[in-house]
Specification:
about 200 residues, mainly alpha, two-stranded antiparallel ribbon, 8 helices, binds zinc ion
Length: about 200
């Protein structure tokens, strides 16, 4: 399976697969990293929802049913938009848009109807292992989002001050402001430095 460069380059820093999914639209101004169904599968492999082998199988399945794959791709963008609406509102302390929540409810209902509750070595979990379901990555994402809302530590949910990515702040004193220091943190420091120098010159 070919993984496009814009997927390979994606930083996985959300702290939850639902947030990493939201962050597949990158930066400000936004750059779309999911440019088609193939990217959606590649992302799912990157974050570990599927093995490389399972990904290959899905891409093969998509080649046989291109229209279905296109529909799943559009569904994925719809789910992502709703999740961004929900998590951005929560990170900013605002009201969660009812329309976005309703979209998530729909996906979660569908996820549970297709999933299987299984017992593993480390307790129980939901599994989506129908290798032919082209939308197979949307269900664990929707379920992760629901779990984050119902039992996650939402006080730690933050919006990057630079690029508007969402992430869970796992730092002990909850002081993380950036998706990653290297990308947005350094940018912001540089901007402050340039502004300071400009102000000094103007004096
Ligand atoms: Zn950022």
């Amino acid at each position: 399976m070919e993984t496009s460069e814009h997927i390979e380059r994606l930083r996985i820093v959300g702290g939850d697969v639902a947030l990493d999914f939201v962050n597949t639209e990158d930066g400000d101004p936004p750059v779309e990293c999911l440019r088609g169904y193939g990217d959606l599968v590649a992302w799912s492999v990157l974050v570990g929802l599927f093995s490389a082998e399972e990904g290959e199988r899905l891409v093969g399945e998509a080649d046989l049913r291109p229209e279905d794959a296109e529909a799943v791709y559009r569904d994925a963008l719809r789910l992502r938009g709703a999740l961004y609406g929900v998590f951005r509102a929560l990170a900013e302390g605002g009201d969660v848009p009812e329309r976005d929540l309703e979209t998530l409810r729909g996906y979660e209902r569908e996820a549970l109807s297709r999933g299987k509750l299984v017992q593993g070595d480390r307790g129980f979990s939901w599994e989506w292992k129908d290798g032919r379901d082209l939308a197979g990555m949307l269900w664990p994402v929707a379920h992760a989002a629901t779990r984050l809302l119902t039992s996650g530590d939402l006080d730690r949910l933050k919006l990057c001050a630079g690029c508007y990515w969402v992430f869970l702040d796992a730092s002990r004193n909850r002081s993380r402001r950036w998706c990653t220091m290297e990308v947005c943190g350094t940018d912001a420091k540089m901007r402050r430095y340039v502004a300071k120098r400009a102000a000094k010159r103007a004096q």
